[in-house]
Amino acid sequence: MSAKPMNTSRRAQAGKAVDLPALYKSMLLIRRTEERLATLFADGEVPGFIHLSIGQEAVSAGVMSNLTKADTIASTHRGHGHALAKGLSLEGFFSELLARREGLCQGRGGSMHVADMSVGMLGANGIVGAGLSIALGSALAHKRLRPGTIAVAFFGDGALAEGLLHETLNMAALWKLPLLFVCENNGWSEFLPSEKQIAFTLERLSAAYAIPYERVDGNDAEAVALRSREIIEAVRRSGPAVLECATVRVRGHFEGDAQKYRDRADLEDVAKVDPIMRCEAVLKKTRMSDEALQALDADVRSAIENAISVARAGQDPDFERAREDVYTPQGFASP
Amino acid sequence: MTEIRYLRAINMALADAMAEDDTVVVFGEDVSEAGGSFGASRGLRDRFGPDRIFDTPISEAAIAGAAVGVAMSGLRPVIEIMFMDFITLTMDALVNQAAKARFMFGGQGSVPMVLRTPHGAGLGAGPQHSQCLEAWLAHVPGLKVVCPSDPASAYGLLRAAIRDPDPVIMVENKALYGMKAEVADELPVLPIGKAAILRRGKEVTLVSYGASVHICSAAAAQLEADGISAEVIDLRSLQPWDEATVLESLSSTHRLVVVHEAVEAFGPGAEIAARMADVGFDELDGPIVRVGAPFMPVPFSKALEGRYLPDAAKVVAAVRRTLA
Ligand SMILES: Cc1ncc(C[n+]2csc(CCOP(=O)(O)OP(=O)(O)O)c2C)c(N)n1
Ligand SMILES: [Mg+2]
């Protein structure tokens, strides 16, 4: 058996058009949020490490445009885009990243562990590849409890080297689980290009499991949305699929990474394929006026500034409260 | 009263939990069609069907990781890892995911999963199929660890583990699987974190869990013949462990010996001894002595394994040391 390419683009395009302004807004929210996070981080207001997904927003916006609230996602260390596109509250998000009690995780998780179970966001993850099997389990539960609901595992090209990917692909294929694998291939994991780490292609790997595979320009929000739409419909009906999104990492691996290992030219090319600029160009040509675009940007910025003010006004988490959340007290299960 | 085997008690607990709550699902290697490598899940597939109990490939990391995702998404998974030695392959899912989720997501939810796994030497299974690694797990904030010593506690703790909202590791000494004991017709669910005092005594407290409990009982019988009265405590749970019961016993016996099959160095006994040396300092009339396996992998040869394992003679010797 070999993987059947889904060839979805033609049929999907014949269907309902993509809501480009909504995609644009979703990307803009991620971009402006991360731009502010960069400055807040530089100013020392955001503790720990942060990994920005600037340049990769189209993947989050495009895939999430086809998910419902009940669908679940497992994210990565570079998860702000996934989180915001899945619908986390902006105030809860900023409060978390600023380590506040009012944060979604009460200031105990931060950027690398932000989660919101109420919108099906099962967590950013500090462990490369770990989200794969969590999404696998979530898909398994969906299949039993909520047919038609799916789980999505986001992972970077670096996670291709983790053995857990093999276990997860195998089990997802074996059990025909409603699981979409989304690889955000930005060509880098930390400071080493992926071609120095990966001896195979995800396309050929998927074929080995007879899992349908699609590759899409991950910097084209419309393409991601269209292609993932039909793939996701297929995953809802019949089982796993792999979507590889070719994208670019604009910033360093983490904030503060001077990227000395990276070619200047590489970084210049990156600006040319910016997903937001590309989307904006299409919108300008077809639907939206400059004023409308500016108004949208102003809306997004003011929502972000509001969330930052809320976060700044928040309190430090309470130590005793944190201690109580390790596990339920002993004797809980007594009859 | 009826007489049942330890393995049968586990089987009954799984069946009763699955009957009580249809969100309970069981998966692992050879658990379904074969009924478990040791037979713990025999008959469950016929009764509950392959959607409730299913076999997995040999993918321990993904089995445990999937259990986390399953538990986050509305089911209560019970997974089996065939030998405790193989939990090395599940550690990320246990330590970084299951254990931390409640805490690091700010108490938004918990991970109600159970991992059952057998430990223990004595069957000639050799270095990679015998090790007692429970101290690793008890060291991780967010995991609960139970280790039953007999059929009734195997039943009661497994039922509690499955009802518990947090990840629970149930460690079963495989040498106990064939053990028979009389149990009540209605087996109670036992609270996690509560010890049982198996024998009252005045001069020394013997604390252990799992199979070592029986060594302590044998030692207590021998000591009694020599006129020494020993109290025997079965911890049942290691995380959380019943510090209050141990302290109370120490307060009346004033001497303490901690016994387990796990390697003595950095083992669970180190924690118990250290806590009692602290909170029980004023009660102590002798050194706290530990009896555990020597610092070596579990050997294969019976000649070596016999010396490796703790036994009643070693416990008696430890008691004499603290009484001296
Ligand atoms: C298991 C594990 N190994 C190593 C790391 C350190 N680390 C964090 S991100 C990263 C690179 C991941 O690359 P990729 O998956 O391509 O994601 P990207 O950073 O490009 O988004 C590494 C090695 C980790 N967090 N977890
Ligand atoms: Mg990468």
From TrEMBL, chain A:
It comes from the Bacteria. Transmembrane segments: none annotated. The keyword Metal-binding does not apply. It catalyses: N(6)-[(R)-lipoyl]-L-lysyl-[protein] + pyruvate + H(+) = N(6)-[(R)-S(8)-acetyldihydrolipoyl]-L-lysyl-[protein] + CO2. It holds the Pfam family E1_dh. InterPro entries: DH_E1, PDH_E1_Alpha_Subunit, THDP-binding, TPP-bd_CS. Keywords: Oxidoreductase, Thiamine pyrophosphate. Its cofactor is thiamine diphosphate. Residues 314-335 are annotated as: Disordered. Residues 26-316 form the Dehydrogenase E1 component domain. The pyruvate dehydrogenase complex catalyzes the overall conversion of pyruvate to acetyl-CoA and CO(2). It contains multiple copies of three enzymatic components: pyruvate dehydrogenase (E1), dihydrolipoamide acetyltransferase (E2) and lipoamide dehydrogenase (E3). This is Thiamine pyrophosphate-dependent dehydrogenase E1 component subunit alpha. It comes from Alsobacter ponti.
Automatic annotation (TrEMBL), chain B:
Signal peptide: none annotated. Residues 4-179 form the Transketolase-like pyrimidine-binding domain. Its cofactor is thiamine diphosphate. The keyword Oxidoreductase applies. InterPro entries: THDP-binding, Transketo_C/PFOR_II, Transketolase-like_Pyr-bd, Transketolase_C. SMART domains: Transket_pyr (SM00861). The keyword RNA-binding does not apply. Keywords: Oxidoreductase, Thiamine pyrophosphate. SUPFAM superfamilies: Thiamin diphosphate-binding fold (THDP-binding), TK C-terminal domain-like. Transmembrane segments: none annotated. It comes from Alsobacter ponti. This is Alpha-ketoacid dehydrogenase subunit beta. Pfam families: Transket_pyr (PF02779), Transketolase_C (PF02780).
